[in-house]
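Hi R.,

Here's the chain you asked about this morning:
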Amino acid sequence: MDKNFINAEINSKKLIKYGFALENNIYSYSKPILDNQFTLTITIENNGKINTKLIDNLAQDEYILHKMEDVSGSFVNRIRNECNIILNDVLDKCFEKMIFKSKQCQDIIRYVKTKYDDDLEFLWKKSPNNAILRRQDNKKWYAVILSINYNKIDTNKSEQIEIVNLKADTKIIDKIIDNHTIFPGFHMNKKHWISIPLDYSMPNEKLFTQIDNSYILTQKISK
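And here is the predicted structure, written out as tokens:
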């Protein structure tokens, strides 16, 4: 029952909206179950580690039989079921599925969350492995993350890869494209967009600078 949610990442805003409280970098949530016979408390760390504690309200002591795989019976199974319903609801409503697996993509997700407080948005039902990042002030996209076959941008390679499309200055875009770390924007207007493979061919420091430049290029221009 205590576990990491595999291929999922916490969404802090959704946790708070759900009813979790944040203290010392740990989210906690309590809910009575089985007609208030027990209270289930769920704690979640920033790294996604989730723990549960079930208190018998009458005995005012922790109940652990439901965590023992060799213990069975209608009552303990009912407790397990109630706890799993709540845990699955938390997973469904407060965690984001990690569609993108590359480490550098995860670096991007953490970077934009920390700097701009932006989260990935999945807009296309027919393309569930594609996502965007957009500014909160004017809703303009500044990044598009895609999972594609490498040969879409480099015919010499054929493995599946994740890329990020970013806006670039039209005055220098032709100069920075080297078809190694930076390619013409895949599936985008190539006069304004570039594609970068997320395989660390471009170090994070330079990649984050490109993201910041894209963010600036999509800002609202004052009259």
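One quick note: The helical segments are 12-18, 74-94, 103-116, 173-176, 204-217.

Cheers,
M.
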